[in-house]
Structure formats: C-alpha cells, structure tokens
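Sequence, please.
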C-alpha cells in the first residue's frame, strides 16, 4: 500500500474554512470544495470521526450517515494539533508549522496540545508565544477583518490555550461545558447579525477511541450522542443557514508496539525523537543519517514508511510547500506507521503509549474524514 498523501488544494481539511469563508464574501478566499452557502454557517468538528469509522457504524449515527456522501483528507500528520491549525489557518502543516503533537522549535521540544516543554508541566506560552510559533494570519482573522462575526464554541478549558491562540485567533471564544450548551451557544451565535461563522468543537469521541478503541461499545455510545448533537444543531438552524460537519482525523487500533525507550538499536545516532506514536520525527547526529535510516528500515521493515526529510517534503506529505522556518521542525527522518504499529515511548510518554486507539499516519483509516453538509 502506498501512503495516502493529503489532497491539498482540492480535497483536504485545510480547504474547508477558506471554502466556507468565500461563500461569506471574505476576500481572497477560494471555494475549492464547492461549499458556498448562505450568510450563516456552523462548522462542527468532531474529533476522531474518521470516514471509514462512520461508514462502518452508520446505524449508530443515522443523521450523520444520511449526509455521508463525501470524504476529504485530513493532512499530515493526521493529529488534532496539526488538523485544527490547518482548519483555523486554511494552510497545510508545511506552512503553518504545527507538524505534529510535539516538535522542535527555538531550542525547545514543544508539546503543542498543552503548550508545555515536552515531558514537563512548564508552560511555554511566554517563552514561545503561539503567535510566533504559528506566524501565519488565521482565516478567522481574515474573516473578522472582512466584517464576519466569527465565534469559536469550544470547551471552556481551551480558552486562552496556546493552541487556541495559534489556530483560532481572531474569533470570539465562547467556552462551553457539555453538549447542551454547545448546541445552545452555537445556535444563539447563528441567530445574531449576519454574516456569521460559527466553529464548534466536540472532543469526547476521540477520547473514548483512545481509551477503549475505535468501534468499541463506549465509542459507539458516544457516536450516538455526537449524532444527536449534530441533529440538534441542524434542527435549530435559521432559515438559509448551513451546518457543515467534519473531523480532524480517523483512528486505528494499536496492536503492534515498538517501545523506542528500550529499542537501543533505534536510538544509536539519534539526538531527539518528537511527534507521536504513529508518526515520529527523528533528528539525528551529524553524519549519522544513513546508519540511522538503515537501522529503522531494518527493524520496522514494511510496518512503516521511512523517509528522509527531503523525500517527505518532495512527496507533499506536509503540503505543496514547506516554509523555511518550518523545515527544521521536520525530522531528518520521518517515520509514518502502517497497519496497527505504534512507536511508543513507555517511560517518556507513559499515558500516550498506553492508549489503544492511535492516529497520525498516512493510511485511509487515519486520513479520510467526512465532509457533511445540511442546509436549513
């Protein structure tokens, strides 16, 4: 199987927000996906709702499945921090620079979801301001400047987070706590003066996929709640408004584990390993690249795609262009898992390594996400 390279510019998550904003009259935005709607749009992102998972469990989500006729690619890595930044900026990871759950920048290894020094609880929002790590203007800033009312409906705990500042600055953040106030807040925002763009986020399906596995009993129960969430928003849409539902990634079940903290043959010549269990950035010592690549390819065989930085960039994994300031964040080797392989770090990342559901790589199960539209 060849890697499923994201279809940037034609069918990728980074194309969603620009397509919707073009329909709202925001200048210099292109409706690549043909999503132009009315002057009120709600974009609901369901974390972890892969296209293949939705299709396989359509009976648990009758409303969403009634709309399910189109998929797009998430982007690389297919992980929350990267995908949300692509959604908020309208750019692939090679341009916005969030190239994974963790990466090297300004002499630090940054844990992007927490905006902390990797492996610690040290807050890096002052030392590494999100506006400097992710320098590109967001699509939300462009929309606000064009007179669109932009609302970000997300868990209250995320307000002011580093990732929110990096990906969604420019929108008014409305913190919510559960499904009820997510629906109420989104619909109240849509009822305000047009044009209005509401971005709403739901995290719990992803959490249960990680803990219990995608397609498990708890995951299916949560999928039914997600379906009810989307249906409730759809039922309350003002006339002419649109609900668009998508996701940041799919998910696979981890059933093949290699612990990098004990695999000494894979650490020889390596300086830093970043990323996450399904995608690793491997930064090597000077002159060691060939030996390190041979060791990783020899150990992993056909269980992973192992590419040099130049090869991954040339293949378009990070989009058609990788900015100069982003390039050093990409590993000298980029290792993308296949099948159920996870490249864990049992002592360094004990919680992340223990998760049953994982994502990030270039398989259809991780890359393909739904793009669903309901018009009021």
């Amino acid at each position: 199987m060849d890697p499923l390279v994201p279809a940037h510019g034609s069918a990728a998550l980074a194309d969603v927000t620009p397509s919707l904003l073009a329909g709202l009259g925001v200048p210099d935005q292109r409706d690549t996906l043909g999503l132009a709607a009315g002057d009120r749009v709600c974009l609901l992102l369901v974390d972890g709702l892969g296209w293949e998972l939705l299709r396989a469990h359509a009976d648990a989500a009758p409303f969403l499945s009634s709309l399910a006729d189109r998929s797009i690619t998430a982007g690389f890595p297919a992980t929350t921090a990267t995908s949300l930044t692509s959604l908020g900026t309208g750019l692939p990871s090679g341009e916005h620079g969030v190239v994974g759950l963790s990466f090297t920048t300004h002499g630090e290894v940054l844990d992007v979801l927490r905006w902390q020094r990797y492996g610690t609880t040290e807050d890096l929002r002052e030392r590494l301001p999100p506006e400097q790590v992710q320098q590109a203007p967001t699509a939300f800033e462009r929309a606000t400047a064009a007179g669109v009312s932009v609302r970000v409906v997300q868990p209250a705990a995320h307000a002011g987070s580093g990732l929110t500042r990096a990906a969604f600055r420019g929108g008014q953040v409305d913190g919510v706590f559960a499904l009820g106030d997510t629906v109420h807040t989104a619909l109240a925002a849509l009822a305000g003066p047009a044009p209005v763009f509401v971005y709403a986020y739901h995290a719990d399906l992803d959490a249960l996929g990680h803990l219990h596995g995608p397609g498990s009993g708890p995951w299916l129960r949560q999928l039914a709640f997600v379906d009810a969430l989307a249906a409730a928003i759809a039922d309350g849409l003002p006339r002419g408004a649109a609900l668009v539902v998508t996701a940041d990634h799919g998910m696979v079940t981890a059933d093949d584990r290699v612990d990098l903290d004990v695999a000494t043959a894979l650490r020889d010549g390596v300086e830093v390993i970043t990323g996450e269990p399904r995608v690793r950035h491997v930064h090597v010592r000077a002159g060691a690249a060939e030996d390190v690549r041979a060791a990783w390819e020899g150990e992993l065989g056909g269980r992973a795609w192992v590419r040099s930085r130049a090869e991954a960039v040339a293949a378009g994994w990070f989009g058609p262009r990788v900015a100069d300031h982003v390039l050093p964040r990409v590993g000298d080797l980029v290792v993308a898992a296949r099948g159920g392989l996870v490249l864990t770090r049992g002592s360094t990342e004990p919680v992340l390594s223990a998760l049953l559901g994982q994502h990030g790589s270039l398989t259809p199960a991780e890359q393909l996400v739904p793009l669903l539209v309901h018009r009021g």
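The first helix runs from residue 16 to 23.
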